[in-house]
Amino acid sequence: MRITQLELLNFRNHVKSRVDWAPHLNILTGPNGAGKTSIIDAIHYLCMSRSFVSRTDQYVINSDESYFMINGHFEGNIRAEFDVACSYSRGDGKRIFVNDSPLDRLSDLIGMVPVVVLSPDDKKLTLEGPSERRSFIDSFISQISSSYLRDLLDYRKIRRQRNTLLQDFNGPVSVLKTYLEPWNIQLLEAGSRIVAKRFEVLENFKSYLEKDYAMISGMNLTTNLSYETFCEPSANPEDVYEQYRQKLEETSDKEIEREQTLIGPHKDEIMFYLDDFELRRFGSQGQHRLFALSLKLAQLHYYSDELDDLPILMLDDVFGDLDPRKTEALLKTLQEHQGQIFITSANPVPFEQYVTFDGKRNRLFKVDNAQVEEIIN
User: Which residues contact 62 (CB under 8 A, 6 or more apart)?
Assistant: First the structure.
């Protein structure tokens, strides 16, 4: 999958920008604050219906305007070519269009254009709490499994409604348990499938992570990950269901006392390891950065093996933290990958030593004051 053209209107500091992209490497250089990240964030909007920089759409609008618009033209194997547009206004909210037809649900966009993005904010993946890693694996799987995304959205809705019942019911406990039963069944069904799919994907993902960490780090440290959930995980939802049902029964009184759902995949954790030590607790800053980079490269290679269309890769301000050997190793890997890649860099990096910018397969752009200009060698 690749994007051939992008148009921005009132998006962050871009009042009006239009860029034609190369099918392989697209490198954007320029000073901090020039608008490089905004460009690839706009592409992320067209792939995932949201920003990877900001949690709130309203802060993405140019400060002098009341709306933004993004348009992109895509080409791929499954869909020969199609247009995606994203609009947001302070009054009407966000809307997504595919070939000028509005999507009924924003979630219908997920997986249409698979994307992998690595940004400085991804240090949270290994440094912060379990919610960051759950978000990573949920986004990861949702782009390759529409059924997983449906289960995830259903589970969140069921849990919210179940929690509302636990909080608002004032009658006898025996009656409350009766009312909870249909919600329990729905919770068990969706939650069991989520756990089974997470376990299946993470087990397959381990070998990708090990290979990419060895490549980028050049070290003889062995990576591993552990999926921590409420039961003995299995790729079979039926096995998970029975364990889940027992746990839910055991915690029934405690849930009523605390008025919230205490057991389920919303509590899951993914532990990362280098050799025998836990990365979050004992890893150096350099190891955290390399592990996060390896996670995203492994995601890229996993997608490339699993999907009919290659994903789009975005690396936002990554090379500033890499020494020359790692820079060379990463660029060599990217050169070998046949999909479309976007790289932003504020610091001088000798890209020309590794990449031929021919204006066809690879392009180099300068971004300054929200103006994008291709550099012709």
Answer: 10, 11, 12, 13, 14, 15, 68
